[in-house]
Amino acid sequence: MQPLPWQPPVAFSIQEGQIVKRIRKAKLFVFLRQHRHILFDEAFQEELANLYRKEERGRPPVAPAMLALALILEAYTGVSDDEVIEATVMDRRWQLVLDCVDTEEAPFSKGTLVAFRQRLIEGQMDRRLIERTIELASQSQGVGSRALRAALDSSPLWGAGRVEDTYNLVGHALKKVLRVVADQQERDLVEVAKEAGAELICGSSLKAALDRDWDQHIQKDEALGMVLNMLQAVETWMQTLQQEDAQLAQSSLSVAQQIQAQDVEVDEKGKASLIKGVAKDRRISVEDSEMRHGRKSRSVRVDGYKRHVLHVLDTGLIRAVGITPENVPEASVTEAISEDLAQQTVSLKELRIDRAYLSSHLVRERSGDLKVYCKAWPVRISKRFHKQAFVLDWERQIIRCPADQEVPFMPGGVVHFPKDTCALCPLKAQCTTSAKGRSVSIYPDEALIIELRERQQTVQGRAQLRERVAVEHTLAHIGQWQGRRARYRGVRKNLFDLRRCAVVHNLHVLARSQALSAELQATA
After folding, report:
1. Residue 380 domain-assigned?
2. Distance CA 404, CA 302 (A)
3. Which of 455, 477, 501 is the last residue of a domain?
4. Is the pLDDT of residue 512 over 70?
5. I need a labelling partner for 76 at 20 to 30 A (CA). Which of 66, 248, 332, 419 fits?
6. What is the pLDDT of residues 415-425, one digit of tens each?
7. Do 507 and 36 meet the contact criterion of CB atoms below 8 Å apart?
């Protein structure tokens, strides 16, 4: 059956007042105790209750508002699910917020917390938690449905799965295959491995079992051949299993086959070797299928994800966040962020970004009301005429070279000046060495790039660009709670974690607003 509304007392008891006096640094506990009844008002509690199916029988579940508060505190304190249960009994700050002071038994179990988190994710209610903080701010600051001045940026988030090379990836996946079958048949892993012809993967280290000189290419190829032979042996052995056992192990076997397909090539003589370079969208972890290689810079590689944050410049609040695999361009996240903004019925009037987002749909499909602020691509220094020496007539869509030759252009295309004209031009030595004549690439957003370049030449324009620093500070705050390494595996669960960290950030912004706190208490 659906849970009953959570109705904790609003007024502080004498005991709660004594607890509050002892809290020195973690003031968010106090803020949540003061405003929990407003954050989780009757209407929002009804939304959370709808996550549960209406059943006539069964024990009433724990109040969703209490569980949601526990998930927020989990992100704030950086503890595990097990430690949440422990904190509800041992930590009086948690008890203060969850209305269970001096309890000797946890108000909910770990299973209840995990199940509620899954319901929250499936119902997209983690996004509603961010929206509730915005609604809370709108009660006193007028942060309602209007155009926003915002900044968008990203930071790396290392994945939780173990990153391995091809040998260990295949071995890890095969070991999972054998373990599933061994558990299903209640047999020893080594016994099953011998039956499958894959004894080498039972040890603590596959490479130690292979015992090769890994600096010698011939020996590396021999080791690869042994690993692939074990894969083939397991595939053949799987065909002898009962259908139920084979189905349970098939997903892990598919991982091993995927890794072989992406990392191994076979020549005409049937010799297998590792593919040079990195396959597109290469899987790098057995446990987390969505982690990817990426680069923060030429010298810094990141294995995992990117977290994106849309920071509102006028309020300091986070309106929307996103998670993408590390190898995906930053611009791909903006459609999801736009959907979140649409749910809040707000639009953007100013957007500050870095160059990685210039190809996003927010920029390419922007309305005339949206102003984009971004540092333009630098002008390439050359001994010959650079593109800025050519004049673009946007009304006529004509490009004019320094020698006053005109050619039509299209945004997103390449302009080729006639080679015969260029050959006779007196300025050719200053323009091009190509026998085919001068060519000029026109970006799809060439007009915007010209505008950005002109703007950053002014004092006011450079000051406007510096406003983007605020989102970098916000990302640092998010990193303080979420950490450098992902808590979960997969994009969706890590998006949930990022969203609740955004909730923690927004609550801190609200807590620092004394006027807001006073007004909310007055309306309580």
Report:
1. no
2. 48
3. 455
4. yes
5. 332
6. 999 999 999 99
7. no
- Domain span holding position 449: 387-455
Is residue 370 one of the residues assigned to a domain?
A: no
Per-residue pLDDT of 243-265, as tens digits, reads: 999 999 999 999 999 999 999 98
Q: Do 173 and 94 lie in a common domain?
A: no
What would the pLDDT profile of 255-307 be if each residue is shown by its tens digit?
Answer: 999 999 999 988 888 788 888 888 888 999 999 999 999 988 778 889 999 99
Q: How far apart are CA 264 and CA 276, in angstroms?
A: 9
Contact indicator for 120, 305 with CB cutoff of 8 Å: no
Contact (Cβ atoms closer than 8 angstroms) between residue 88 and residue 101: no
Let me know: does 51 contact 119? Beta carbons within 8 Å. yes
Instruction: Mark whether 170 and 119 lie in a shared domain.
Output: no
Instruction: Report pTM.
Output: 0.89
Specify the amino acid at residue 219.
Q
Q: Is 517 exposed, middle or buried (0-12, 13-18, 19+ CB in 10 A)?
A: middle
Q: How many domains does the chain have?
A: 3
Distance CA 150, CA 358 (A): 15
Tally Cβ neighbours within 10 Å of residue 288. Answer: 23
For residue 444, what pLDDT is reported? 85
Which amino acid is it at 352?
R
Asked whether residue 144 is domain-assigned, the answer is no
Q: How many residues does the chain have?
A: 524
Q: What is the pLDDT of residue 384?
A: 87
Helix (H) or strand (E) holding 400: strand 398-400
Q: What's the rounded Cα separation, in Å, for the pair 155 and 481?
A: 14
